Amino acid sequence: MSHVKAGGTSKNIHDSPGQRLGVKLFGGESVKTGQIIVRQTGSNKRSGKGTFISRNYTIHATKDGIVRFQPRRVRLFSGKSQKITEVTVE
């Protein structure tokens, strides 16, 4: 007979580090060209004037200035309008 009990399967052993998503520079703060303003998964916030959105949906500044967050009404494909935050640099 075995002296060690059978080991069960463990389901919660895989742990990955956080992705450090979120707003990096808030409204009213100064920004330089190329700095990251928002890191996000999916386009929760849209890029406006003075910003561009990269392939992983990170919003960067294209010029020096002040960050602004403004709510915008955007028409979806279904015809419904939805409020989405637009990030601009002025």
End-to-end distance: 76 Å
CATH homologous group name: RNA polymerase II/Efflux pump adaptor protein, barrel-sandwich hybrid domain
CATH class: Mainly Beta
Care to count the β-strands? 8
Spans of at least 5 consecutive residues whose pLDDT stays below 50 are none
Q: Output mean pLDDT.
A: 91
State the helical fraction: under 10%
CATH architecture annotation = Beta Barrel
Helix/strand structural class: mainly beta
Residues in β-strands, percent: 35-45%
Rough outline: elongated
CATH topology: OB fold (Dihydrolipoamide Acetyltransferase, E2P)
Largest sheet: 4 strands, antiparallel
Rg calculated over all Cα atoms? 21 Å
Tally of individual helices: 0
Order of helices and strands: EEEEEEEE
- Count up the domains: 1
Spatial strand arrangement across the major sheet: 1-3-6-5
Q: Describe it for me?
A:
- The protein starts with 21 loop residues before the first strand and ends with a strand.
- The protein has strands at residues 22-23, 30-31, 36-39, 45-47, 51-53, 59-61, 65-75, 81-89.
- The protein has a single domain (22-89), classed as RNA polymerase II/Efflux pump adaptor protein, barrel-sandwich hybrid domain (OB fold (Dihydrolipoamide Acetyltransferase, E2P), Beta Barrel), CATH 2.40.50.
- It has no helices and eight strands.
- It is mainly β and 90 residues long.
- The model has no long low-confidence stretch (mean pLDDT 91).
- A hairpin with a 5-residue loop joins strand 7 and strand 8 (81-89).
- The strands form two sheets. The protein has a four-stranded antiparallel β-sheet, with no helix packed on it. It has a four-stranded mixed β-sheet with strand order 2-7-8-4, with no helix packed on it.
